[in-house]
Amino acid sequence: MRRVMSRMEMMFNKTHAHLQDDLQKSQNAILHRFTSRSAFSAALSDTPICVGPYRQDVTIRYRHIFVNLNDQYSSSTGVFTAPHTGVYNLALTTYNDAGAGARLAIGVRLSINGVQQASLMENNLQDREDSTSVNLAVSLLAGDRVSVTLNAGFFLCDDGRHRNIFSGFYLFD
User: Fold this and answer.
1) Considering the entire predicted model, what is its pTM?
2) Cβ atoms of residues 157 and 49 within 8 Å
3) Which of 53, 82, 113, 166 is the most buried (most CB within 10 A)?
4) How far apart are alpha carbons 99 and 113 in whole angstroms?
5) Cα–Cα distances in Å, from 133 out to 70, 136, 172?
6) Of the candidates 128, 112, 111, which has an alpha carbon nearest to the alpha carbon of residue 120?
7) Which residues of 9-24 are buried (b: 16+ CB within 10 A; e: fewer)?
8) What is the mean pLDDT of the chain?
């Protein structure tokens, strides 16, 4: 009887140890999922504003933050820094209104570590408003820097209705 009890106790202890290991793995997976969340969305401004034109290319700083999980987008620099390696969705929408009094043309580019990934150009002089947009799925490494650059000689205007938006979010490893 003691032998049977001893064997049952040993089996119980092994099962308990496996359950504890499984619980720890599950807790770590949940913690990883929580800490790996990354999303930001920002508009040019809350108030009417024009940016540019400048004589040289300039990084656009989107000041009105809709969401910025874990503060990975910096509104003071205009740069999103990837917190970890994985696939991200990046989206950019631009808008201009001829009522701003300057040349109605949009010229911006989306870059990763200074390397252009997409160029958004609109130079239609036939109407009063122009807009462009791009949506990309990209692989980023931890520490990669994503930004939007206003090309020299171009400008962006927003009337406070959040027509110029830069967004991104983490999809998966």
Assistant:
1) 0.80
2) yes
3) 166
4) 34
5) 26, 10, 23
6) 111
7) eeeeeeeeeeeeeeee
8) 86
